[in-house]
Specification:
With 288 residues, the protein is an alpha+beta fold. The protein is built from 12 helices and 10 strands. The protein has a 6-stranded antiparallel beta sheet. The protein has a 4-stranded antiparallel beta sheet with strand order 3-8-5-6, with no helix packed on it. The C terminus is likely disordered. InterPro entries: AraC_XylS_family_regulators (IPR050204), HTH_AraC (IPR018060).
């Protein structure tokens, strides 16, 4: 998703995003339906994922979304999937990214729902939904885009996902751990292992993260840490870079700069130093 999507998640039902709760029978699969109510005027924005796979449906049938991966443009159509660890991937807007409907899934159940391997996001992080949707996708898209009312579109999605529901087992504790990470913010693997009254060990945690989420617990926590630091930088507070780094669990500002380059391909100063932005000490003091 465009990285600025995540700063609106905390302000659900505000001016920028609308959340619709899933029906009871889908709550183990779908975290929520979201409508992006504010367009992003930038022609290019960093793409990111916070550990929850998403399927996004563009507002109009003829909208073809594209992403730039390491300098190469890839078109993913009007319905696309995003997940895993995204590095140096940017979305390219042909139109305002507005009224896009995003389905945010619980990773633990996402892979089972679409009958795909848990490592599906290892080599491709953004791709056309038709690649995993299976039988009935064309009928689904036809029904979806024939509707104009939001409630009708959500019903089409619910019916489609409900038809894919199967009985399968997974450790319920994983969803609890994901919620714990999101709630607490800055954590290490040791914090997770020590934070539960039930007995957890590292091998169990790593094995089940990779099996059911398709990612190691370390990579999951790295994504969450970077996202929190990015949102602090974007907020243009009075903090300097070192303060932001320490507040988000980095050893120092150089550690944050290296992580920023790893995920975006550039330093924080280069990324934020674009026309029509207002900067303060937090950005101006970032080293090249």
């Amino acid at each position: 998703m465009p990285i600025n999507f995540f700063k609106h998640l905390a302000d659900q039902n505000g001016d920028h995003i609308l959340r619709i709760a899933p029906p009871e029978h889908l709550k183990e699969v779908v975290e929520g339906f979201y409508v992006c109510k504010a367009g992003y005027p930038e022609e290019r924005e960093l793409f990111f994922n916070d550990g929850y796979p998403v399927i996004a449906l563009m507002q109009n049938k003829d909208e073809n979304f594209s992403v730039n991966i390491d300098g190469h443009t890839k078109y993913v159509g009007n319905a696309w999937v995003c997940g895993g660890v995204l590095r140096n991937i940017y979305c390219e807007f042909e139109r305002r990214f507005e009224d896009c409907l995003v389905i945010r899934f619980n990773a633990v159940t996402f892979f089972k729902l679409f009958d795909i391997n848990e490592d599906s996001f290892q080599n491709r992080q953004v791709f056309d939904f038709t690649e995993i949707a299976g039988y009935g996708i064309e009928k689904f898209k036809e029904a979806y885009y024939s509707c104009t009312a939001l409630e009708d579109r959500v019903k089409v999605i619910v019916d489609f996902l409900s038809g894919k529901m199967t009985v399968y087992s997974y450790p319920k504790l994983l969803i609890d751990i994901q919620n714990y990470i999101e709630r607490e913010g800055i954590l290490t693997v040791k914090d997770i292992l020590d934070g539960y009254s039930v007995r957890l060990n590292y091998k169990w945690l790593e094995r089940n993260f990779k099996k059911h989420l398709g990612i190691s617990p370390q990579s999951y926590l790295l994504m969450r840490r970077f996202l929190n630091a990015y949102l602090d930088l974007d907020a243009l507070t009075s903090k300097d870079l070192l303060e932001i780094a320490i507040d988000n669990g980095y050893y120092d500002d150089n550690h944050l700069i290296k992580d920023f380059r790893r995920f975006s391909g550039v330093t924080p100063k280069t990324y934020f130093n674009v026309p029509a932005r207002v900067f303060n000490k937090a950005i101006d003091t970032v080293a090249l």
